[in-house]
Amino acid sequence: MASAAEQLAANLNFGAFAKAEELKKRIWFTLAALVVYRLGTFIPIPGVDPQAFAQAFQSSQSGILGMFNMFAGGAVERMAIFALNIMPYISASIIMQLMSSINPTLEQLKKEGEQGRKQINQYTRYLTVLLAAFQAYGIAIGLEGTRAASGPVVIDPGWFFRLTTVVTLVGGTMFLMWLGEQITARGVGNGISLIIFAGIVAGLPSALAALFELARTGSLSTIMLLLLLALMLAVVAVIVFMERAQRRIPIQYPKRQVGNRIFQGDSSHLPLKLNSAGVIPPIFASSLLLLPITAAQFMSGSGPEWLNTIVAALGRGQPLHLAIYVALIVFFTFFYTAVVFNPQETAENLRKYGGFILGYRPGQKTAEYIDYVLTRITVVGAIYLAAVCVLPEFLISYAAVPFYFGGTSLLIVVSVTMDTVAQVQSHLLAHQYEGLIKKAKLRGATTTRGRR
Question: Rounded to the nearest 5 degrees, what angle is found at the Cα of 413, between the Cα atoms of 410 and 415?
Answer without folding.
Answer: 100
